[in-house]
Amino acid sequence: MIMVDSLPRPTLIDFHGVSMTHYFTSNWEKIQSFQARPDDIVIATYPKAGTTWVSFILDLLYFGQTTPERQTSMPIHIRVPFLELDIPSLLLSGTEMADNLPTSPRLIKTHLPVQFLPKSFWEQNCRIVYVARNAKDNAVSFFHFDRMNKVEPEPGDWNSYLQRFMDGKMVFGSWYDHVTGWWEKKQTHSKIHYMFYEDLIEDTGREIDQLCHFLGLSPSVEEKERVRGGVQFDNMKKDNMVNYSTVEIMDSKISPFMRKGKVGDWKNHFTVAQNEQFDEDYKKKMKNTTLQFRTEI
Ligand code: A3P
């Protein structure tokens, strides 16, 4: 049994033009040859965009009624495997966990940029739910996550971190490339449902309705209300099966996984100068896309 504290923090590597760490590339052949099933549902995000929130919503929609014991006994990372994660001797790899899932549909999480998604998901025409979050809050959330997650590279101080975020030197690469890459793909691929964290905060019920429409689900009004209530931040924060408090590689004492759950927390982190520089750079990087984000609601 490997001790988490003996795992050194990884360093970033350039992996086919995308910054990654070996924890997400060492199993590459198995990831790329992963066999999808037509009813698999992929939850794709840039890290810290609301992956766990949407994973829990989908898990409740599909299994909340039929197998409620999942919710009380299986941590979310077991219910919804993280496809590319590979920390040998600590956990089964994401591909093995997905292969072993007994339920149907399988809910599978990934942070891969669109060009890296295993081709079987496209061949099987699987439904994909992509969640995006505005860059400023996403960067802040990622910074605190990297502080508390022992298998992430050392974050350093906030100023240098923000610079690296702008340079795309983050695990899973550039936020700008990730959100726009999936957005472009969505324009020609009808099986991608592109959601925004800010919309979920604004009206979770409306977003659940849209998700159900995309997935072809028709839960009762009561059931939808149960899901909406169950996935509220305060409920998830105290639920050990979704708040990652049972996961050894994360140190909630440094920063909890369910940290703030707000739109606009970036204002507590960005200096005026950082904000101006960020906005100027953002305009250049995002000038060729129709994708729009809200940094406050
Ligand atoms: P913060 O760090 O800003 O609080 P991911 O699951 O992709 O890693 O994203 C984690 C982020 O989503 C964290 O953001 C977390 O608090 C937030 N989050 C998770 N569940 C949420 C919920 N029910 N409501 C609002 N935010 C939520």
Quick overview of this protein structure:
This protein has helices spanning 28-32, 51-63, 69-73, 76-79, 94-100, 119-123, 135-148, 158-166, 175-188, 197-202, 204-215, 221-230, 233-237, 272-285, and strands at residues 13-15, 18-20, 41-45, 107-110, 127-132, 192-196.
Highlighted features:
297 residues, four-stranded parallel β-sheet, 14 helices, binds adenosine-3'-5'-diphosphate, catecholamine metabolism, Sulfotransferase_dom, transferase, EC 2.8.2.-, cytoplasm
What does this structure look like?
- Helices cover 41% and strands 9% of the residues.
- The chain has 297 residues and is α/β, with parallel strands linked by helices.
- The N and C termini lie far apart (46 Å).
- It is globular.
- The strands form two sheets. It has a four-stranded parallel beta sheet, with helices on both faces. It has a two-stranded antiparallel sheet with strand order 1-2.
- It comes from Myripristis murdjan.
- One of its GO terms (molecular function) is sulfotransferase activity.
- Keywords: Catecholamine metabolism, Cytoplasm, Transferase.
Characterize the main sheet. 4 strands, parallel
Radius of gyration, in Å, reads 18 Å
Helical content class: 40-55%
Number of helices: 14
Average pLDDT figure: 96
Strand content: 5-15%
Q: Give start-end ranges of low-pLDDT stretches.
A: none
- What is the CA–CA distance across the termini? 46 Å
Helix/strand order: EEHEHHHHEHEHHHEHHHHH
Name the hetero compounds present. Answer: adenosine-3'-5'-diphosphate
Structural class by SSE content: alpha/beta
In the sheet with the most strands, the strands line up as 4-3-5-6
Q: In one word, what is the shape? A: globular
Q: Count every beta strand, where a strand is a DSSP E run of 2 or more residues.
A: 6
